[in-house]
Amino acid sequence: MKLLAISGSLRRDSHNTKLLRAAEELVPAVMEFQVWDGLKAIPPYDEEDDIDPAPPAVAAFRNAIAEADAILISTPEYNSSIPGQLKNAIDWASRPLATNVLRNKPVAVIGASTGAFGAVWSQAELRKVLGATGARVVDADVALGHAHTKFSEDGELLDEAARDQLAEVVVTLLAETPAPQFANANLLGEQVRKAGSIAGNVVAA
Length: 205
Ligand code: FNR
What we know:
The chain is an alpha/beta fold. 40% of the residues lie in helices and 14% in strands. The protein has helices at 15-24, 56-67, 84-93, 120-133, 160-175, 185-204; strands at 2-7, 32-36, 70-75, 106-112, 136-137, 143-144. Ligand FNR binds next to helix 1.
């Protein structure tokens, strides 16, 4: 069982990557959690390069998506929309459209920004784009505004309400995976929320 986490930001100290790491603490141990770090290597989409075999970075990205049972994307907001590198990667993943690796894949979208609204516009854009690929976008979100004030120096998420929302996102996403152990959303919710409060106690200590 694998959850692929994709940060739309390339920078090392990214708040969106930290938000994914906070989600990792909530995911049950039976689930492998992989943060995708190959986004920067993906070339600009060119239909002439979209042949078999695909460019290696694209093939690796498509394989990672194909092997994942669910996907969690955290996106920054750049000028009210998704960063170009994230849109570019999704464009590659979306081809060929009828059989693309995102089709029917459960995907959750969350986001962080240093502004007040927590990348709500870019999250909406990303859900629209993912919908066009045929991904199963789940109805749950986290919009972490003022993100530069919301993490400890160790990268712990300090905002309790955001941690609760993150737990709901994880529960909603995993309930959409084919794994029978995640089908009971109530039991799963208990487990994930417990992980959230343990993380919260560690932060508070
Ligand atoms: C931004 N930022 C930003 N924030 C926001 O709330 N709305 C916006 O439209 C934009 N636009 C924007 C454009 C560009 C080119 C940059 C570089 C930044 C600020 C953004 O939220 C901030 O840099 C986040 O920290 C980016 O996320 P990571 O890299 O921390 O994950």
